[in-house]
Amino acid sequence: MSYAWGHERRYNDFSTYIRKLFNERVQKISIHAGFTCPNRDGSKGTGGCTFCNNESFKPSYCQPAVSVSDQITKGISFFRARHPEAKFLAYFQAYTNTYGELSQLIDLYDEALTHSEVIGLIVGTRPDCLPPDVLDYFAALNKRTHVTIELGVESTSDITLNRVNRGHDFKSTRDAVTRLADMGISTGAHLILGLPGESREEMLMHASRISDLPINYLKVHQLQYVKGSQLGSAFLQNPENFRVFEVEEYVELVVDFLERVRPDIVMERFASQAPHNLLLAPKWGLKNFEFVRLVDKRLSERDTWQGKLY
Ligand code: SF4
Fold it and tell me: Is any atom of ligand 1 closer than 6 Å to the C-beta of 192?
């Protein structure tokens, strides 16, 4: 059976989609360009989001002391042996990558885009950090190369966003996504399942609420307790006060979540794995492709698919 997204996989997966879009294998190269974020430097807050230790989600080749072009060259050499024919997207991942003077941002993005093997840009940021001049710049850039803006949404509940000290509300997400869509810029969203205080029903509600927005890509992952984050410290003191997903339980949640996601949204990720030396819980010991296999298997067993309940 072929689904709405044109193939037999039970969800609209990123790797198939992106290969079709570019007609070749495309790999993202993560970059740490030395940004901070307004939730750390005092303009929105100082402590950061309670779940955040940025060290837990960037590869080791990505260091701000190294220039953007050197990070790209290193990242490419890392992937080149396994994928000799691949092309690359420069992925400004660490912290808030639109938080700076426009001229400084343009210099950094240009440095990435002039690399001979880079065919486009992905910029991770917060929904409340897209001023009009930056949006206008992206709209113009989008006419000559591939641009995706990836927004840290994390939750669609203002109560949760407040609880995790996110420093913005869900309306900021709605506004940012709408403005990006109006300008024709493709947009990804990032959600965390299992943030403190959220019931299973609320987590499933995120699928419906985010599907109401004109996003193109979606990443979700389980809440991880990591060293160096406020939640990680609280977890170490009183682990009994915190929910830690068992892998089977989380797979079931992902399948229920997928059933509620709009079929044309491209699913980029279901789970994440912080580096071993930082991760406190949950410790599943699964690689991403192993987790994806469990989701595929459960979708088959339940004979269900992305958007079945949308
Ligand atoms: S998750 Fe993003 S916005 Fe929150 S503290 Fe970390 S870098 Fe800043």
Answer: no
Give the structural domain span for 130.
14-302
Tens digit of each residue's pLDDT (9 = 90 or more) over 15-47: 999 999 999 999 999 999 999 899 988 898 888
Q: Of the candidates 203, 218, 304, which has an alpha carbon nearest to the alpha carbon of residue 249?
A: 203
Distance 301 CA to ligand 1 centre (A): 37
Helix (H, G, I), strand (E, B) or coil at 177: helix
Quick: pLDDT tens for 118-147.
999 999 999 999 999 999 999 999 999 999
Give the integer Cα–Cα distance in Å for 129 and 106. Answer: 15
**Residue 191, domain member (yes or no):** yes
Domain at 132, CATH number? 3.80.30.30
Two tokens at 245?
Answer: 């997903």
Mean pLDDT in residue range 179-204: 98
309 occurs within a structural domain: no
Domain-located, residue 310: no
pLDDT at 188 over 60: yes
C-beta separation of 65 from 81 below 8 A: no
For the Cβ of 152 lying below 6 angstroms from any atom of ligand 1, the answer is yes
Atom 1 of ligand 1, residue of closest alpha carbon: 52
Report if residue 5 sits inside a domain.
no
Number of independent structural domains in the chain = 1
Question: How many whole angstroms separate alpha carbon 28 and alpha carbon 47?
Answer: 29
Confidence at 74, pLDDT banded by 50, 70, 90: very high
Phi, psi of 293 (to 5 degrees): -60, -40
